[in-house]
Amino acid sequence: MCPHFLLLILIMGKKEIYSAAGLMAYIREVGFLPLLDGGVRGFSAEEVVADDCRYVVFPDGGWDWPLWKWKGPVVTDGNCVYGKFFAGKAGFISCDWWPDFCNYRRSKHPVPAEGSIDETVLLTLQSQGPLITRELRAACGFNGPKMRSRFDGYVTRLQMGCYIVTQDFVYPTDKHGREYGWGWSLLTTPEALLGRESCTSPHTPQESYDLLANHFRKLLPEATDKQILKLLG
């Protein structure tokens, strides 16, 4: 078994996670957790949940993925932040670590320049949010078939800078009122979600980085400096 996975098992004191509550506790314990494989084996929610909580496709074409369904309850529980934080890929960060992570990331991704598209996206969300991506895209005037991927790039960049996070997930419903599909991220700002004080740190950006890097080295002792730097961004 992968040494990284063994370490994470030891931290939690159990081998597999079977529920949203278990995943919440795990995130609080480790501090950071990508949703899917992010390049360090064993360091993702996908890899630490029980086998029967992973993605499965049924013969009739239907599917089930308990981990995917847990995202909403885990995020709305209020003990972690969710967004595309790890090299543009989604994951969770505990509220205990968020101030220093936000402090460091914003030093690497300064406030969007006045008049930029990034600023327009952020100001629109601040004034009209929370919004799902489709609503935010329309509110910013990014209409047309070729605008979606371009707009998603701006939103991802703002998430990497810790200016946008996911508040919850919204699902369409069928005629019986049952939710279906993959759902949409309901986007907001971390200040709106957690409060401005939760997005500030008493440390300098360099001090925050040192705290984060030391934590990752202890959490993933066999990860290379390059892998850690990629996760921290």
Mean pLDDT: 90
- Low-confidence stretches are 1-6, 8-15
SSE order: HHEHEEHEEHHEHHEEHHH
Straight-line N-to-C gap: 28 Å
The quaternary organization reads as: single chain
Q: What fraction of residues sit in β-strands?
A: 5-15%
Tally of strands: 8
Going across the biggest sheet, name each strand in turn: 1-5-4
Question: Taking Cα atoms only, what radius of gyration do you get, to the nearest Å?
Answer: 18 Å
Which outline best applies?
globular
Number of helices: 11
**Class by SSE composition:** alpha+beta
What composes the largest sheet?
3 strands, antiparallel
Work out the helicity level: 40-55%
Characterization of this structure:
This protein is an alpha+beta fold and 233 residues long. The protein has helices spanning 3-12, 20-30, 45-48, 66-76, 98-108, 117-128, 133-139, 147-160, 190-194, 205-219, 225-232, and strands spanning 32-34, 56-57, 63-64, 80-86, 89-94, 131-132, 165-170, 184-188. The strands form 3 sheets. It has a 3-stranded antiparallel β-sheet with strand order 1-5-4, sandwiched between helices. Strands 6-8-7 form a 3-stranded antiparallel β-sheet. Strands 2-3 form a two-stranded antiparallel ribbon. Helix 5 crosses helix 10, helix 6 (117-128) packs across helix 8 (147-160) and helix 10 packs across helix 11 (225-232). The chain is globular, with a radius of gyration of 18 Å. The two termini are 28 Å apart. 34% of the residues are buried.
